[in-house]
Amino acid sequence: MCLLCAVKDEPLRLRPTLLRDARDAVRTFLSQPDDAKAPFALGANGNNRFRGWQHLGENVTRYGGDGDPDDPNAAFARDQHEGIDLYEELPDACLPADSWARGVNPWPSSAFEHTMREYVHEMMRLGRDVLHGMAEGMRVSKESFDAAFHRPFWSLRGIRYPPLPLDSAAAAARSGAIDRSVPLSCGEYCDYGVLTFVNQDEGMSALQAQARNGAWLDAPPMVDDATGEEMLVMNVGDMLTRWTNGRYAATPHRVIHSQSASPRVSLPFFFEPSFDADVAPLPELLARTGDPAAFAAVKYGEHLTKKVLSNFES
């Protein structure tokens, strides 16, 4: 099953304006001139090299050689967005001595930090509820995943996408296949972890997911017709594919922001297991279905590290 769907916050109830408040906090920060954002940049002023502001085009999407940066055939295209990358701040003792994941986030302001910490808390609660529901849907114990989340290493990206020119190659081919060398708002890839919750500006359809038949489908922001409440788009990542033995397949997706003249703000929240979690097909699921394991075990932190270290190109 390839899954990308809209999610209401039932039975979890979010503060009514939280989704918008989180987007607006990101919008306020990223709308500033670059020199105002520079103190919070990746690697600036002693900042962790992987936490903080990344300027337009700093993030890249790999292609060729399956995107493997160790493959001499791998290439990249610069993504047409800027963002701020935030991760769980774990004690150093919980991470390898030389890990990129050590360190703290360079919060732009106390108000920004307060809003984001509230947002993270609520997204973590939502992720646990959804994962428990998935376990029950597969007829395995609701607690099957819990041990892997003793110190969840969540991440969050606040992203601002400038509109692509209407005469760009990406905009012209928006409904179909696009050569991966063509710069997009965000190039095609699959999420690395478990679940992703995407909080995106209303009225701007830019996120697309690829169906198993290869077709690209819009995943627009949605609002509940009865209540007017915003919904989140939920996506499946690599680790859930592995845990469910392929039952839930990670969804290739991309962003092409070409249908509005205004910048678009999006907040993908990545609900992830502990950095040291061992991820393999659930034994209880294999026992119930009689299927052989289609994936070997992997440590989440090792998988994440390989992906993150290939996200940038000088």
Architecture overview:
The protein is an alpha+beta fold and 314 residues long. A 7-stranded antiparallel sheet has the order 1-11-8-13-6-5-2. The radius of gyration is 19 Å and the shape is globular. The protein has a single domain, classed as Jelly Rolls. Helix 1 crosses helix 3. The model has no long low-confidence stretch (mean pLDDT 89). Strand 9 and strand 10 form a beta hairpin. The protein is 23% helix and 21% strand. InterPro entries: IPNS-like_FE2OG_OXY, IPNS-like_sf, Iron_ascorbate_oxido_reductase, Oxoglu/Fe-dep_dioxygenase_dom.
Count the DSSP helices: 7
Shape: globular
What is the strand tally? Answer: 15
Query: Can you list the strand order of the major beta sheet?
Result: 1-11-8-13-6-5-2
According to CATH, the homologous superfamily is B-lactam Antibiotic, Isopenicillin N Synthase, Chain
Major sheet size, sense and barrel closure: 7 strands, antiparallel
N-end to C-end Cα span: 37 Å
Low-confidence stretches: none
Helix content: 10-25%
User: Which strand-content bin applies to the residues?
Assistant: 15-25%
CATH class descriptor:
Mainly Beta
Overall pLDDT metric: 89
Radius of gyration: 19 Å
CATH topology name:
Jelly Rolls
**CATH architectural name:** Sandwich
Structural class by helix and strand composition: alpha+beta
The number of distinct structural domains comes to 1
